[in-house]
UniProtKB/TrEMBL annotation:
This is Uncharacterized protein. Residues 107-139 are annotated as: Disordered. It comes from the Bacteria.
């Protein structure tokens, strides 16, 4: 009996991690895991990152680009197995990355309205898993 349990435990250690039901569906992830209501342009941006290798967003000042970018970063880290995804944050200046984008990403990492996300966003502009694995940062 104990030998069977040991073999089952050993087999689980080598089993592939479960695939997230949200992989490829960031809109559903944001609606269900974040309890967010997305207007049409935000849905289009979110789905584009799942459907295309590159996504560019033409926008104006204060239209919510940082919020949607932070949600996408949180989605990417959440739906991939720990350590298999990395999110890089870029903006024209360090101040924009730190004060605007990374601030939103830190808020997104806390996920106060839903299930906890892996790891935590740090003031150093990094996102680390609990084991110390770096999964996000600025460039």
């Amino acid at each position: 009996m104990a030998v069977d349990l040991a073999w089952e435990y050993a087999a689980r250690q080598f089993a592939p991690p479960p695939v997230s039901p949200y992989l490829g569906d960031p809109v559903r992830w944001m609606q269900e895991r974040r309890r967010a209501h997305l207007w049409s342009m935000r849905r289009e941006i979110a789905q584009s990152i799942a459907d295309h290798e590159h996504t560019a967003v033409k926008s104006c000042h204060d239209a919510g680009q940082s919020w949607i970018a932070a949600q996408i970063a949180a989605y990417w880290i959440d739906v991939h197995p720990p350590g298999e995804a990395f999110v890089v944050s870029r903006a024209p200046t360090y101040a924009q990355v730190h004060a605007i984008l990374r601030k939103e990403i830190r808020k997104a990492a806390k996920n106060p309205d839903g299930d906890p996300l892996p790891g935590r966003g740090l003031q150093s502009d990094e996102w680390k898993l609990d084991d110390g694995t770096l999964v996000g940062g600025r460039q």
